[in-house]
Amino acid sequence: MVSLGISSDDDIDAMVRIDQVNDLIASWPKCDLPEELIRDIAVSQIALAGWCWPAKASWIAQAVLSIHASLCVEIGVYGGRSIAPMALAQRHLGIQGKVFAVDAWDNDIAVETPTTQENDKWWGTEDLTAVKDRFTSYLLREHLTDRIRIAEMASDDAARCFASPRFRNKVDLIHIDGSHSEEQAFKDVKAWAPLLRHGGLLVMDDIAWETLGPSIQLLNKIGDLVYEERSEPGSFAAFCIDQAKASAFCN
Length: 251
Ligand SMILES: C[S@@+](CC[C@H](N)C(=O)[O-])C[C@H]1O[C@@H](n2cnc3c(N)ncnc32)[C@H](O)[C@@H]1O
What we know:
Blueprint: H1 18-26, H2 35-47, H3 54-67, E1 71-75, H4 84-93, E2 98-102, H5 107-110, H6 117-125, H7 128-141, E3 148-151, H8 155-162, E4 171-176, H9 182-192, E5 196-205, H10 213-222, E6 223-230, E7 235-241, H11 243-250
Parallel strand pairs: 1-2, 1-4, 2-3, 4-5
Antiparallel strand pairs: 5-7, 6-7
Helix pairs in contact: 1-2, 2-4, 3-4, 8-9, 9-10
The chain binds S-adenosylmethionine (SAM).
């Protein structure tokens, strides 16, 4: 499938041009993903704002394919660059999955617990509404509105909504990339890890940040590290969660 109806060299809209997509595909990191899925992810990388880079996007999509992740959650969506690969991989599998997009897109909530002065200044003034609008336009164009469900609220509030038998121990994959403050990141791991099914994957972004130390310590207690990347564009790690340990350490 060719995303966004791209079939010529024309600009298809202000979001994506075919030559940009082709250039990105030409430099795509080696991976086992099918060509059409790489193409869809490449389009999303160009269309959407964010920090997810091609190798990480490929890793996330491969994880969804490998564990048939039909129920996924992302905490901290921003422009959608890291959540799109989850939904696109689900669509490629042909499963009727759901990916919940948890983000408040609210400056005050983004800086509620402090990180660094520079980081908080950026998050306190970024036009998050415009970023979200671009994401929702992409969802409409890609016919992903049924698969990606937006929960526009603080992650603490969302965690309370999701703490129900419908989700507890049922989620296949969670990507945590919300606030990078020590306090909030730790709260996010503690609140969301128990939703994973036994053997589900928790992907933690920016593990190189000092503020994420306590979160990583907790993740090492409740799961096994299955992947870790510390590269130039960024860092992330994936943990396979032990449900019994998550219940014991996170409640
Ligand atoms: C680093 S960005 C996410 C980047 C995205 N995952 C990517 O790879 O492009 C962090 C996002 O978390 C959101 N956020 C920060 N604190 C939050 C909170 N307490 N509740 C909900 N969302 C929050 C911000 O609005 C922001 O969009």
